[in-house]
């Protein structure tokens, strides 16, 4: 008995199959030294000493799911370019099944961050929406992939890859899948019927307006959950933690972060961890507790990072 306890590593996440669909990005980091101000303009000069590339957007959600030991697949669009090839290679290296569509008409979305003295100095974004033909192909492939996965995560960064999100949700729910959505934009009606939405405070405020008390927030969140026919709504609240609203309860978790170093990608970690826990058969409360712990760990790391099963359950 004691042997089992010693070797227990939490839920059987290695049995869970998660398909992530959404806006795929390449995050590039240029690290350098800042020692003087430019003579051309009042800006610092960063002399680049190191470069790194990481999976971003929906690809970072898949990377987080794979880091937890789940079987992760990624469906999205990249350009037929060097950055798209780099994304493909990193997916392969991370053990993620790639279903990427290569769109000849666009460039891969890149977010380039220049960092000097451990501070982000500037972020440069390169992005174009995918073409209609590629998006139609993607929807057909999505429907074909549904039988192979338990949990569907729709990672919306409002970059154009999820224009068919309402059809995807309907198809996935009809197939009996858990459908999790990280939402964006001014119109959440396209997410009707999903299992759970995971907005942050500013995203929720754009939809329901501001609130003056916890009671008012609860009323607005529950009304939105009901209107959108969701099983649950998870509000991520940064330093205030996160709150889960279901039909019969409100469950709040205070922030688990020991030290906040970088919040970029934390939402990706939270939704990937919840997906893995729900896919393993855990209930809402256990899934939120674990996702909250994962978010607390990842904000203590620089850039879009991941959490391992050992860090969570070791």
Automatic annotation (TrEMBL):
Alphabetic keyword roster: Kinase, Transferase
Molecular functions (GO terms): heptose 7-phosphate kinase activity; heptose-1-phosphate adenylyltransferase activity; phosphotransferase activity, alcohol group as acceptor
Domain Carbohydrate kinase PfkB: 18-306
A Pfam family matched in the record: PfkB
One cellular-component annotation, GO: cytosol
Entries under InterPro entries matching the protein: PfkB_dom (IPR011611), RfaE_dom_I (IPR011913), Ribokinase-like (IPR029056)
The keyword Kinase is annotated on this UniProt entry: yes
Presence of keyword Protease: no
SUPFAM superfamilies, per database record: Ribokinase-like
PANTHER family: BIFUNCTIONAL PROTEIN HLDE
Protein name: D-glycero-beta-D-manno-heptose-7-phosphate kinase
Organism: Rugamonas fusca
């Amino acid at each position: 008995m004691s042997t089992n306890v010693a070797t227990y590593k939490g839920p059987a996440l290695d049995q869970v199959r998660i398909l992530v669909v959404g806006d795929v990005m390449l995050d590039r980091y240029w690290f350098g030294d800042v020692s003087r101000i430019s003579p051309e303009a009042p800006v610092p000069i960063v002399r680049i000493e190191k470069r790194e590339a990481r999976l971003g957007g929906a690809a970072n959600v898949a990377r987080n799911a794979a880091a937890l030991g789940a079987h992760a697949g990624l469906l999205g669009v990249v350009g037929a370019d060097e950055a798209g090839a780099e994304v493909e290679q990193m997916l392969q290296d991370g053990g993620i099944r790639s279903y990427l569509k290569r769109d000849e008409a666009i460039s891969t979305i890149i977010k380039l961050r220049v960092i000097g003295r451990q501070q982000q100095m500037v972020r440069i974004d390169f992005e174009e929406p995918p073409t209609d033909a590629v998006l139609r192909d993607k929807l057909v492939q999505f429907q074909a992939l549904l039988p192979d996965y338990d949990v569907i995560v729709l990672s919306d960064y409002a970059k154009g890859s999820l224009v068919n999100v309402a059809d995807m949700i309907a198809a996935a729910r009809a197939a009996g899948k858990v459908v999790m959505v990280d939402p964006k934009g001014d119109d959440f009606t396209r997410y009707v019927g999903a299992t759970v939405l995971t907005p942050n405070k500013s995203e929720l405020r754009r939809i329901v307006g501001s609130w003056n008390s916890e009671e008012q927030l609860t009323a607005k969140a529950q009304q939105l959950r009901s209107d959108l026919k969701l099983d649950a709504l998870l509000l991520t609240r940064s330093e205030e933690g996160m709150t889960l609203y279901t039909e019969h309860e409100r469950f709040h978790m205070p922030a688990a972060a020991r030290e906040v170093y970088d919040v970029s990608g934390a939402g990706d970690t939270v939704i990937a961890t919840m997906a893995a826990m729900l896919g393993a058969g855990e209930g809402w409360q256990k899934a939120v507790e674990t996702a909250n712990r994962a978010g607390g760990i990842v904000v203590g790391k620089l850039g879009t990072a991941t959490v391992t099963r050992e860090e969570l359950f070791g």
